[in-house]
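So, read this over?
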Amino acid sequence: MTVCCGVQVPAPDFDLALTLDSGQTFHWESLGKGFVGAIDQRAVYVVQRGDSLEIDGAPAKVVARYFSLDHPLAEICAALPNDPAMMAASVFCRGLRIMRQPKWECLATFITSSMKQVAHIRQISRTLRERFGTRRSLGNTHLYSYPLPEVLADLEESDLRHCALGYRAKNLLATARMIASEEMDLELLAKLPDDALRAALCALPGVGLKVANCVMLFAYERLRAFPIDVWVERVLREKYFPRRRKFRPGELQKFSAQYFGAHGGYAQQYLFHHARKTTPRRLSVRDR
């Protein structure tokens, strides 16, 4: 591997490895002392050295924006609820930031994530990239960008099923065709308020409330969005309602919006990652 890191980016209050392993994105790979991956259509290599990043393949501003290095992380963490579960997760996840991912890539990836563990989602992402993405080179290292919706729209459902998508293939294909035909414009959705954005995303094939909230959080920077998957639901039930057995539909979602507030997305990601990494594997459930 020959990659020269010639650009430095200040990165205080940031943990690169922790962020890339937190279930937000699924294609970055450890390589040498750093990580190689794609930021949109760019091949990028990143090494963390203390409070700075050394990068190759992209301008400093692109990398800084992707990893949300402008988020006032200390202020965000200070604003999170001061309860034992949240505090334990915040300490465990110190330096973890909510990334700003490309909208199509984030949407497509989370459509394929349903009922899957992180390792499986990573394999699906790798297969889709290698078969239908564009090859990018960085030194003598090669990787693939995520396939554009126009590329997937020209495929058949069977092509995607061969990538181990199962029933998700139909949803990914239908959504890709809606976007490729401009029936849906992901960039225009950014102008919508939260509730309208969530409703628009939920209208896409394969997108339910949890996936919509993930896309809102990781691609549209709606930091109030609070995705509830099996991990987070378990934490909410066990840590915040230990004596409750039954909940009305939407009750946990409403509680989360009120209790965790403006930075609920950070709270969710910290609770999720802490639970996933500290729960004994014999008790584990699907990751996303």
Remarks:
- The first helix runs from residue 16 to 20.
